[in-house]
Amino acid sequence: MHKERTVTAEGEAMQLGSKARRDAIVRLATETGPANVDDLSRKFAVTASTIRRDLALLTDAGRLARTYGGAISVTAHPEATLRQRLGEAYLAKQAIARWARMQVRSGETLLLDAGSTVGALAHELRSATSIRVATVGLTTLNELADVDEVEVECLGGRLRHISQGFVGPLTEAALERMTFDRVFLGTDGVHPVHGICEAELEQTRLKELMAGRAREVYVLAHADKLGESPFHAWAKLPAGWHLVTDQSAPDSMVARFETAGVEVVRA
């Protein structure tokens, strides 16, 4: 395995392979706070592009969360994998998905996010006829791949393994060529003022672009995600967006969203 030269805190030269370097980056982010690309590049005596690749891999693995110019630890609020999320709030997600399916009309063009709740909606759409679905999520692709009545467009890009969703400039470039009747967005947390909370700024930028391309914007979030801010990256949403949650959502929390001008549905 190729090893690269770095320097310990005591000034002694040592050799680190890529795995050891990434483990050290995670330790630093956990112990000392946000890790900056330039600082890490100097510390480990590698190029900035090498550090960026390390951070991308660590983010995909759910070990770090990207920030502008670096990364932060996710030890306090680790991002769950899509597989882990599939078993969370199962009945609530099914109710949300069924309500969302009822809003879709034949002939419409839809945009579907990645995530387990949006994936549940994709399953419901298997019975739809004459609709077009564009998506950034592998779950939706898998659900609709064999449904002849649904035209499916994959926006492509860089795959985030942890969320099974595509992000990045290629995704954004494809998105700019389309408009939609409705967009259905997932979230790690949703706030009445700040909007959608996600692990990476790259995700929040994409969600803002998605919301801006659709006539109607729906955020699908079960009650446990309301008012939550597990990370520090936010996507602002346009006025008049819809929050679709479940029956267990507290009245006080629903009132906060309604006061902010959000239309709330408890499915």
CATH topology of the largest domain: Rossmann fold
Structural class: alpha/beta
CATH architecture of the largest domain: 3-Layer(aba) Sandwich
Overall 3D form: globular
Tell me the distance between the termini. Answer: 53 Å
Which spans have pLDDT < 50 for at least 5 consecutive residues?
1-15
Number of strands: 17
Count of alpha and pi helical runs? 10
Q: Strands across the major sheet, in which order?
A: 8-7-6-11-14-16-17
Overall pLDDT confidence: 87
Q: Order of helices and strands, N to C?
A: EEHEHHEEHHEHEHEEEHEEEHEEEHE
Assess the beta-strand content as a share of residues: 25-35%
Sheet with the most strands, sense and barrel status: 7 strands, parallel
Q: Evaluate the radius of gyration.
A: 20 Å
The CATH class of the largest domain, by name, is Alpha Beta
What is the domain tally? 2
Helix fraction by DSSP (H/I, runs of at least 4): 25-40%
Function: Repressor of the lactose catabolism operon. Galactose-6-phosphate is the inducer.
Pfam families: DeoRC, HTH_DeoR
Keywords: DNA-binding, Repressor, Transcription, Transcription regulation
Protein name: Lactose phosphotransferase system repressor
